[in-house]
Amino acid sequence: MRLVNSATSPVHAVRAVLLAILLVGTFAISGCSPEDLPDASPQGGGTSNTEELENSINPSQLPDSSFIYDATISSLEKADSYIDGQTVQVVGEVVGDRVLAEKDPTYCWITLEAVDGTYSEVAVYMTANSANAIDTFGAYGRHGTTLQVRGTFNLACKDHEGVSDLHATTVSVQARGYSTASPFNMGQVVPGLVLVVIGLGLLLVFRRIRENQL
After folding, report:
1. How far, in whole angstroms, is CA 159 from its chain's centroid?
2. Residue environment code for 23-43, b if the CB has 16+ CB neighbours within 10 A, otherwise e
3. Among 25, 87, 134, 184, which residue's Cβ finds the most Cβ atoms within 10 Å?
4. What's the pLDDT tens digit per position in 60-89?
5. Nearest of 153, 154, 145, 150 to residue 170 by alpha carbon
6. What tens digit of pLDDT does each residue of 164-179 get?
7. How far is CA 166 from the centre of its chain?
8. Arithmetic mean of pLDDT over the chain
9. Are 113 and 92 in contact (CB under 8 A)?
C-alpha cells in the first residue's frame, strides 16, 4: 500500500484555498484590504514621541506683556479699559508749551496733537531732557516738532489726579518744526479798506444831518 504525503494531499490544498477565500471575504466585508493594516515599523517622515513633546503647549507659561500698540492719538481719546496700562506708540505734533511738573522739575508735560487732521490731543509726561529735543512748539504761524513717543498709556492716571496721559519712555524726533506764516496778500485787505471808507463816509453824512437839525 502506497502512503500519500500530507504536504501534497488534495485535502490540505482545498483547506488552504478555503482559508484564503475566507480571509479575503473578511477583509472585503470590513471595507479594508491587507495593505490598509497599520505598519508597526517606524517611517522616515513620521513624528516621534520626543518631537511631539517638544511642540506641545506649556499651559504654565506666563503671557508676554511687552507687545507695543501702534496707535493714533484720536484712538487714545476714545480708548477703553482694554488699552489702559498698555505700551503704545504714537506720532504727533507738539503744540502749546512745555509745563514743568510740580512734584519733580526733572519731568515736564507737553501736548501732542494728531497729524491725521482730527486735532485730537494727548498729554505726555516725559523727562525734561527728552523735551529738549523739541525745537518748535506749534502755534499760529508755526508748525511744531513732530515726535514719535512710546510709553505707557493711562486711562485715568492714579499719579496725576486721574487725568488721561501717556508716560513716555522713548522719544524720537520725526520732523523739525517750521514757520507757516503766510505772505501778505493785498487782495484780502482791499475789501476791508473799502468797508472802512464807506463807514467813515456814512459817519460824516450822519454828523452833517445832525448839525443841520440843531
Report:
1. 25
2. eeeeeeeeeeeeeeeeeeeee
3. 134
4. 444 444 456 788 999 898 888 888 999 999
5. 150
6. 999 999 999 999 999 9
7. 15
8. 78
9. yes
From CA 176, how far away is CA 174, in angstroms rounded? 7
CB atoms within 10 A of CB 110: 27
Q: What type of residue sits at position 35? A: E
Name the strand (E) or helix (H) holding 169.
Answer: strand 165-175
Continuous H helices in the chain:
10-30, 49-54, 73-77, 128-131, 186-213
The residue whose grid cell reads 491725521 is 116
Residues 6+ apart with CB under 8 A from 111: 94, 95, 96, 121, 122, 123, 124
Dist. CA 95–CA 112, nearest whole Å? 6
- For 127, other C-beta atoms within 10 Å of its C-beta total 15
> Residue 147 is placed in which grid cell?
515726535
Alpha carbon 102 to chain centroid distance? Answer: 32
Query: CA 146 to CA 141: how far, in whole Å?
Result: 16
Quote the cell numbers at residue 202.
456814512
Grid cell, residue 157, equals 492716571
* Contact assessment for residue 115 and residue 121, using Cβ atoms and an 8 Å cutoff: no
> What one-character DSSP code corresponds to residue 87?
E
Longest C-alpha distance within the chain, in Å? 175
